[in-house]
Each structure stands twice: as C-alpha cells, then as structure tokens.
Amino acid sequence: MDTDTSDTPADLIQEDEEALFVYETDYEIGQDNIEVAGLDIHNPVFFLSAGLIILFSGLTLLFPTVSSQYLTAAKTWTLQSADWLFALTAVLVFGFCIALTISPLGKIRLGGPSATPDFSIVSWVAMLFAAGVGVGFMFYGAAEPLAYYTDWYGMPLNAEPLTAEAERLAYSATIFHWGLAPWCIYAIVGLSLGFFAHNKGLPLSIRSAFYPILGEHVWGWPGHIIDLFAVVSTVFGLATTIGIGATQAASGLGYLLGFEPNVYIQILLIVAMTGLAVLSVLRGLDGGVKLLSNINMGIAFALLIFVIIAGPTILIFTGMGQNLLAYITDMPALTNWVRRPDIAWFHDWTIFYWAWWISWSPFVGMFIARISKGRTVREYFAVVLFAPVTIGVIWFTAFGKTAIAQFKSGTGELGEGMSSASLVLFQMLADLPASAITSTAAIMLLVVFIVTSADSGALVVDTITSGGKTDSPRRQRVFWACLIGLTASALLYGGGTDV
C-alpha cells in the first residue's frame, strides 16, 4: 500500500490557504535596481535619498548657526501646529492595535500557516528592546522622572512640584511617553509591512503597505516618494537618537575621567561607534544585531538588578504596581490635547516624543517585520506591545525611585537637584556602591545600544533602497551606517539634539 501522505486533503487545504495569501503582481523584487561599482541599488530611491541626506549634512556642517536657527524654528512650528494630529494618531493607532488583537484576525500567522519563527522569544524581545528604546531608557531612565518631580523643565498637568501628585505624575508621564504609544505605532507599521511582505509576496519595503490603495502605481513615482520619505525619516530619527546617546556617553566619560566634554568629543564618539556599527554590519543579522542585542540585554538586566538591590529596594518594588496603576489612571488626562493647562510642557515633551516615535516608525516597524516572521498577529501584539511596556515600568521605577530618593534625602550630587539630563544617570550611580564599575558598564551599554541602532537602521534603509532585497551587498549597509553617523554628527554640530 502506498503510504505517501504528501497529498492528503489536509495538506492540499493548507497549500490552498497559503496560495490565497499571495498578491498577483507583475512586479519582481529588485526589477528597478541597477548595478554600479558592485552595488545593487534601486533607481531612483537610493540616489535621491542619499543625495538629500548628504546635501543636508554638508550644509549643516558648513553653516551651523543658520542651520540651527532654521531647524529650531521648524521644530517649534511643527510641535505647536500639528499637536492635535500627533496626539490623535497615537489614540487611533492604540485603538486599532487592541481591535486587531482581540479580533479573529489575531489568528493570522506572518508568513503563512506553516511559517516558523526565525528567533527565540528571548532574542526577539532583546532585538525589539535594543533597536526600539535602548538608548532612551539609558538617557531618560533616571532623568525624566526627576525632571518632572522637580520642575526642571516644566510640570505635567501643571502639578505643584515636590508634592505627592508631582511624584505620581513623574512616573505616569514618563511611562506614558515610553509605554504603549510608541510601541503601538511601531507595531502597526511592522505588522503592515510583515503581512504584505511575508504573506502577500511583496517586497519588504514601506511602499508595499500601500499596495491595496495604490495598486500597481505603488511601483512608480508614488511608491518612490513613499520610500524616499521613509529613508529620510529613518536616518534623521536615528541620527537624533545617536546624538542623544553620544551626548550622554561623553558626559559619562567626562564625569569619570574629570574633563569637560564638548561637541568635538561627542562627534569623535559617534565616529568610533559608527566604526563599531560597520563591523557589526559585516557580521550580518545573526552575528551582528542579534549577538549585540543579547549581550546588551544581559548587561542591562545586571545593571537593573544592581540598582534595585543597591537603591531603595522596598520603594522600588511597591512603586512598580503603583506606577502602573498611575499610568493607567492618568492616561486620559495626559492624552488629551484640548485646552491643556500645561500646553508648553505638552509640546516640549509629549508631542516631541510622538513626532520622534513616528519618525522612527519606518525603521523600527520594518525591523520588527523582518524579525517577526512565524508569529501570529495575537502573539505579535502581545510581545511587541506588552514586553517593552513591562520592562519600561520596571526600569523607570527602579531608576526614577533611586534618583528621586537621593534628591529627597539630600545625598550625593542629585541632592542638590538636576544640573544636566545627560549626567543624572552617572550622578545617581556615584551615590551607590561600586560606582566606577557600574558607570563604566552604563557607558558600555550606551555604546552597544547606539551600535545596535545604527546597525539595525543601516539594515532597514539598505533594504528599502535596494528595492526590497534582503541579500544585497554588505558594502551598501556599510555606506548607510556611515551616512547615519555623518548625519548624527551634523545635527550635533549644527545645534545639538534639541533640534
């Protein structure tokens, strides 16, 4: 008797289900590419995006004062004029994520019914954390709660500083900025790209998400403009983050070694970290981003445990539940954009963050799409939304409680208040045991987070500018890693990370 079961009804049904997932299009991945000097690049997206970014970086380096004025004016106008749009986008995206999670669509698996995950849960979460918020957690982990508590740069909801209400809002507002809102934005972009690439057979590129709307026109100039916007947005969003990380790393080195850091030292650090990113790029996704992300998660976890044990342990553990509850109860008031009593704070903090997250969404979303194949939609949202939020509540509570406790007790340098946001982490660690070791570990963590972000960003931008190919020559990713570093240096030289 023939025992071959390869054509059983169940197998045929599964094959039919997978066939339904593929769009019929004459477009082939990379068909618009040209080969130049060993490169395999999309024409015209590569040339337009690289040209615009190089032009901006060059002008900023040549005319830093004028550039700073224009960039600051553009940022101020955007935050004040489009505040409602950024706030409304965050609300709508959050609702859409919840609806997809609980709907029958949650059973869909990225890559089709038989797809299997490429990475373990631990590696998956590590890469999400490293690429999405790692640098920000280091910079703002202690600084943001302390800033809100002491009215260092405005108070959320016009709370009275140094009060119980101010302390509650210090944590709820910080978690609000780093919690569900950014990850909902990333998750929607990532799911859209992952579904159309892994399930519909389209290129892994931002334009593919617009295929249901634009049809075959997405392969022409409308799609070129979409990808161009995605590349420019990604590079500048990454450059801002790298600049922030370099500022803190330089401050930490200066604090430990006793020198005053300046913009040239910050740029020198960016150059060094760009070099490390290039080495990571050359090792590929598994040997580069995955390896660095796993190492980083280990160091970050060790630093977190140290702060919990060496800091006000009981306050930290009791504060985790309290801060999560405060985050949930304060969310409606913090989300509202109509007749805010704290409009200046709302623009300078919340809307700035929302704009930052949106500028990052093509990069983080596309990176998430690439590493999430084999996950169901429900599993995808459960991990992409709630794993980083859980880590965020624990992280900001531990670092925030420790910093605020030092301020309240008047011990250490934080006992005198904040002087610089980039120094708060190191001032906090200085009042704990083994500060030289932990501060060095913090600098290492910052550097690896920045390298991981630059490497991941180069990977994503290269995929877009190579027509959706994921096996393009590595020298292209090296080019983009270097250009991201150049842009970060230009932004710092032209006015710092505030612009």
Automatic annotation (TrEMBL):
Q: Does the keyword Cell membrane apply?
A: yes
A Gene Ontology cellular-component term: plasma membrane
For membrane topology, the record states: Multi-pass membrane protein
**Single GO term (MF):** transmembrane transporter activity
Q: Which residues cross the membrane?
A: 45-64, 84-102, 122-143, 175-197, 218-244, 264-285, 297-317, 351-369, 381-404, 424-451, 478-496
**Compartments (UniProt record):** Cell membrane
Q: Does the keyword Membrane apply?
A: yes
Q: What is its main location?
A: membrane
- Keywords per UniProt: Cell membrane, Membrane, Transmembrane, Transmembrane helix, Transport
* Family classification: Belongs to the BCCT transporter (TC 2.A.15) family.
Instruction: Please report the name of this protein according to its UniProt entry.
Output: Glycine/betaine ABC transporter
Q: Which organism is it from?
A: Hyphomonas atlantica
Per the UniProt record, the lineage of the source organism begins with:
Bacteria, Pseudomonadati, Pseudomonadota, Alphaproteobacteria, Hyphomonadales
